[in-house]
Amino acid sequence: MTDPRWLTPQELHAWIRLVSVVELLPGALDAPLQRDAELTHFEYFTLARLSEASDRSLRMTALSAATNSSLARLSHVITRLEKRGFVERTPCAEDRRATNAFLTTSGWRKVVDTAPGHVATVRDSVIDVLDAADIADLDRIMGRILSRLDPSGRLRDWSEE
């Protein structure tokens, strides 16, 4: 067995910083949403993706891809959001075997009311500590990593709209 290609000190330093951000960012995004809107970050992200869709409706499979979640996880979240009146499930007109998730008027209002605080958190936690060149670098770097982690382009299709 050959030795692995160990990380150089610079690579290790960058890797530890990336892992640290990956570990800390979800809590930094989730806590204000739960406190201010009684939503988890994933619930908000789901509502936001629906709010961006034409007719505020997506097939569950498309919403699963747009939120990078399994159908099982998404189904549980949609059930919670349905109970709160933010989402409704409707039969898909094009394919009777499929189900659509539809953002209700109440769900739309929740997104509109929640978005300013969430954007402020995103700006405070990530965007405002970067300059324009950093943002371009972040976009380029995340695009390259995403290409490796998502070779089918499932998430890229959504992120490049």
For the record, the CATH architecture of the domain at 12-114 stands as Orthogonal Bundle
**CATH level-4 homologous superfamily of the domain at 12-114:** Winged helix-like DNA-binding domain superfamily/Winged helix DNA-binding domain
Instruction: Name the shape in a single word.
Output: globular
Number of helices: 7
Classify the helix fraction into a percent range.
55-70%
SS content category: mainly alpha
Can you tell me about this structure?
Helices cover 66% and strands 8% of the residues. It is mainly alpha-helical and 161 residues long. It has a domain at 12-114: Winged helix-like DNA-binding domain superfamily/Winged helix DNA-binding domain (Arc Repressor Mutant, subunit A, Orthogonal Bundle), CATH 1.10.10.10. The chain has a 3-stranded antiparallel beta sheet with strand order 1-3-2. A hairpin with a 7-residue loop joins strand 2 and strand 3. Helix 2 crosses helix 5. 17% of the residues are buried. The model has no long low-confidence stretch (mean pLDDT 93).
Question: Layout of SSEs?
Answer:
Blueprint: H1 9-37, H2 41-52, E1 57-59, H3 60-66, H4 71-83, E2 87-91, E3 99-103, H5 105-125, H6 132-149, H7 154-159
Antiparallel strand pairs: 1-3, 2-3
Helix pairs in contact: 1-5, 2-5
Short key terms for the protein model shown above:
single chain; 161 residues; mainly alpha; Arc Repressor Mutant, subunit A; three-stranded antiparallel beta sheet; 7 helices; 3 strands
Give a nutshell description of this structure.
The protein is mainly α and 161 residues long. The protein has helices at 9-37, 41-52, 60-66, 71-83, 105-125, 132-149, 154-159; strands at 57-59, 87-91, 99-103.
